[in-house]
Amino acid sequence: MARYIFVAGGVMSGIGKGVATASIGKILQSKGFRVTAVKIDPYVNVDAGTMNPIEHGEVFVTADGTECDQDVGNYERFIDENLSTNNYITTGRVYEAVIRRERNLEYGGKCVEVVPHIPEEVIARIKKAARLTRADFVLIEIGGTVGEYQNSLFLEAARMMRLNSPQNVLFVLITYLPIPGIIGEMKTKPTQQAVRWLNMAGIQPDMILARSVVPLDLPRKKKISVFCSVAKEDVISAPDVKSIYEVPLNFEKDSMGDRILKKFGLRAKHKGDLRDWKKLSKTIKTVKNSVKIGIVGKYFETGKFTLTDSYISVIEAVKHACWFNKRKPEIHWLSSEVYEKNPRLLKELKDYDGIIVPGGFGSRGIEGKIKAIEFCRKNKIPYFGLCLGMQLAVIEFARHVCGLRKANSAEFAPNGKENVIDVMPDQDVLLKEKKYGGTMRLGEYQCRIKPNTLAFKAYGASSILERHRHRYEVNNAFRSALEKRGMVMSGLNPERDLVEIAELKEHPFFLGTQFHPEFKSRPTKPHPLFREFIKAASRSRGKLS
Ligand code: GLN
To answer: Which residues of the sequence carry a binding annotation for UTP (predicted)?
Structure first.
């Protein structure tokens, strides 16, 4: 029998609700329970695939090819489980299903109403996730903050679930306690207001996760307890921390896991000391030698804050690999457009131990990225290309080594004669019909690895599964020309004979993947390719400058 823990936010957004939800999962898992997590996003988009990552953050891709919110990535990284389409709910998905059912006369002539039919669909989806994962605990994160019009139907679903099975449903409110500079004191009033909003939705929180710059003191806990009708032991301190991987350790300082279990009348199956994460946390705090990685992108002008969200899985994968190699990650954002305007600036790349060109869409900044890749190839700077970063490495090699001066991708030169990267025929049809949503080559596909290659050395396996999100591919008509001049196609998809990995020899590390390895990296299990890339980058430290 599954238990359900709803997590909703109060006061303001952006306070780490996803990480908090993932952390609760990690804690319960460490106590011997099976855990899964569901993200509910209130927007009408059916999935995150059609959203701009600068506005909404990274589009995370699950093994089954669901394009979802970045929080699902956090869940996977924390609980170390592969999630699926069942772990992701949006208003769009819910309405789409209800309307389809209505059109099929499945409501038997009834008037289909927003309440109860929409919350009922939400509940059915949450229960399906529980059933399919056979989880003891299902964590459900409700996007947005309480008091918003948008997510009220999801709160309604939570209320109805609690009504039907009060002993199996728990409600956690995560709030923020500001310390206004002029007052210099932590204020609880916004939290009290947030609880009122929740009460208006018919829900009383069982626990309050109190985010703030510093830990909560006892007077503050008592005050929240009195005003919000929550035991002071259930007001959990959630101060700012340097690394997100410390969050579960911090919650456990207030015994959050045991408090939750007690409310359900359960006991820990084992002690759950989070030993591996304590070790990781120690490494994070103590590593001294840094490795400097540059990420070349077009999103420079949007500010660091947005970038961190748009590329979260890449950043986390770099960090995991750095910690494994006992290195301190130092990540810098480099604007490709700057290199287009002023190629002399390319020499700054020599100050970096490794360069990444991550995934992307559209032609802006492309030529600058190609210039940066050329510089890395010629100057033996470790290079790792992810999806678009691989396609551009192939274009660069075709132009400057194979003499195909017009080499390009059909994405940027639809009528190009030397498109070494071409649109996949099935994708071409979809694009012409404007069928954009959820139609890319998505999710896990098999890849065979050639022996005696960098890829084989990293994976130590001849067949792997990796996650994809793209419409374009290496054009097989040019494959032999590329191979003849030394590009090694070290990973191939067996069903469609598509190039999945391309690499170069006689270079410390030069490799690109058509897939997105970053989605499979986990904090204590770095992805093999990131691990090898960082290893090569650590070796090159100081050699070039
Ligand atoms: N725009 C490229 C494609 O669609 C690369 C996609 C990506 O980097 N995710 O194939």
So the answer is: 13, 187-192, 223
